[in-house]
Please model this.
Amino acid sequence: MTAVVAAQGLGKKYGRRWALSDLTLEVPAGRVVGLVGPNGAGKTTLLSLACGQIAPTSGTITVLGGTPAAGPAQLAKVGYVAQDTPLYPGLSIADHLRLGARLNPTWDHELARRRVERLGLDPARRAGRLSGGQRAQLALTLGIAKRPELLILDEPVSALDPLARREFMRGLMEAVADQELSVVFSSHLVSDLERTCDHLIVLAGSRLRISGDAEELLATHHRLTGPRRDPGRLPADQHVVSASHTDRQSTLIVRTTAPILDPAWTVSQVSLEDLVLAYMDTPPPAAAPRPVLEIQR
Amino acid sequence: MIWLTWRQFRVSAAVAFAALAALAVVLGLTGPGLADEYSAGLAACVAGSRDCVEFGQLFFRTKQDVFLVVSLIVLVLPALIGLFWGAPLIARELEGGTHRLVWNQSVTRTRWLTVKLALPGLAAMAVAGVSALLVTLWAGPLDEAAAQDVPRMTPLLFAARGVVPIGYAAFAFALGVATGMVVRRTLPAMAVTLALFTAVQVAMPLLVRPHLLPPVRTLSEITALDVEGIGTPEDRSVLVRVQVSGTDRWILSSRTVDASGHTVELVPLPTSVCAPGGGDDRPPPDAAPPRPRPAPSWLSACVAEMKRLGYRQEVTYQPDSRFWPFQWLETGVYALLTLGVTALCFRWIRRRPS
Model:
């Protein structure tokens, strides 16, 4: 399978600050990718680079094998739902669908019309008078009906209430099921991703902390609990992601592909949320090799 | 893309069209009456006679206010276009974040900008062109009657007639768009656009237009008509101030020079030859005399004395016959400015970070 997004040493600088630096990753096709990280981690920057909204300061990024926003054909392949789901407040819902139809050769009008109908929206309603949830749904409709190969969503649900959030995610997952669609969406809430994503990218402090398929991540990360000890004295193939200590006890989250043999440890499963939080919490090890999981197929 | 641009522009277009239609109706209703009145007045007098000149001046003075208002419409229109069409065009998209929506449809930014500039830009030029044409036609009789007082080359009149308003409108629009891109907020962009455009419009007649073609320079004898004022500060001499009035030309500078070519502010003359008589020490009461009066004999003596001493008047000016060459030249200058600003817009959209 070809990569939907491939980045090599990707970096973006705003003024003197690196919003994203030295990012190398590959996202396989057909995944629903969750991009997680605290605010200011570089999520929006990465997604803007992927849709060609901005150009990288260093390194390269290819999306579906092409340079982002290189031409109409490339633009047609990538759908993008921007943060805060901008819409033209003066234009009606029908106008927005018409906009999509006029500006996209691959536009699926029937799909768009059905979605708006199912949402119970009056097509004559102005976009400026929609609720946040309705706005997000309309923006999603525009993104889906374009029939892209890759749909990128930047914090689509962060401003929505739980109900609207669930509705939105349901709409998104239906589209993924109906169309052969790869999705990359960002969130700072891990709970948004847990049910929907099968691939994760964790950014923190403008750097990539980890990326990989969810199952693989879960299979290679363990929580170790045991008598207090120095994490530096673990076997070389066990990378400590995070460590916390009480007077007598140590709790570590480690990444390893080998089984844990030391009988002193109680080994337990980590959840995706624990894993993400562990990576977001701790600064990247200065000298250690970057923790990128290779996708082996 | 054309559909979207039109959809976003149609309200502005409707407003402009309605205003233009209203202007056309008003000018269309009053224009023929104005022309009739003028031609009837001219028919009633002997061509070239004093009566005819008097009629022309009276005709112009009674309609001066409406003449000014109509000319002002053409003068202000380009600024309005830059303010309300140009500045918000991109700034509003950036402000509302909608550029992130539209730039991710299957249309490149360059194409998006091309269409967005072309449609309102051409409309702006059309509106300016039509309104200037309407006003030029309507004001024809008035311009002719006022030619003595207000030559067509006068900056205010020059900018409100002919083809230059088209150039102004195109430039104002492009300037507004570029400003909006840089400032990124609609209201400040409008303010900056107004300031920049006003600066250019003031700089043009002051600094650039006089030199579009080399001005004509003449050194001529002073006549009685040119004498603006005479003062007698001392008993033994009088001081004469000379100023030529501008008929059929746009005077750039006018100075009195003595026999050796030095500029003199006031011409000193001995009272023995030049004695202002009868208490009438300011011969023509108006700057622009209503009609050539026979000069009093003492004034002729003063003028003759100035001539004998070698005083002459040096005038640089642009003749009124250059009206059309100047119209085309200035439109060309504004076309170049417009192209330059438009090129900046395209450069910006290629490199701009989101």
In short: Residues 278-292 of chain B have pLDDT under 50 and may be disordered. Strands of chain B lie at 216-221, 227-231, 237-242, 249-257, 263-264, 267-270, 312-319. Chain B has eleven helices and seven strands. Chain B has two domains: 2-214+322-351, 223-310.
